[in-house]
C-alpha cells in the first residue's frame, strides 16, 4: 500500500481493491495500475483473477507494480509475466512497470523476524514517485 499511495498521490488516482473495483470500467480510465505483493513468484491470485475478468480494450493504458522479498532479476524473476500476458491479450497497453523489495515474513522468515524490514523505505518511495511522474508524461 505504501507504493500504491505514493503513485496515486502523484497521478491523482483512487486506490481500489479488486473486490471493490468494476472490471468493466477499467477500459474507460485514462490509466489503470495493477499492484500487489509477490507470493511464490507471482502477483496475488486476487489481482490475477481480476485481470481475467477484464473486458477487451483497444490500447487502454495500464501499469504494473509490486513488492517482493527477493530482488527482481528480469531473466529469472519476472513477477509480472502472467498479468502482462493477460493484459496484452486483451488489448491493454502496458506503459510501465515498477518493483522494489518488500517486507517478507513468509515461511522460515517469520521465525527470524522477517527479511527486508522497513521496506519499502524512503528511497523506494522516491523511486515510486519518479516512476509515477514518468507515467504522467506518457498520458
Sequence-ordered SSE layout with sheet pairings:
Layout: H1 2-11, E1 32-39, E2 42-43, H2 45-52, E3 61-68, H3 81-89, E4 93-101, H4 122-138
Helix pairs in contact: 1-4, 2-3
Q: What's a concise summary of this model?
A:
The chain is α/β, with parallel strands linked by helices and 139 residues long. The chain contains four helices and four strands. It has helices at residues 2-11, 45-52, 81-89, 122-138, and strands spanning 32-39, 42-43, 61-68, 93-101.
Describe the structure.
This protein is an alpha/beta fold and 139 residues long. The protein has one domain (2-138): 3-Layer(aba) Sandwich (Rossmann fold). The chain is built from four helices and four strands, in the order αββαβαβα. The chain has helices spanning 2-11, 45-52, 81-89, 122-138; strands spanning 32-39, 42-43, 61-68, 93-101. Helix 1 packs parallel to helix 4 and helix 2 packs parallel to helix 3.
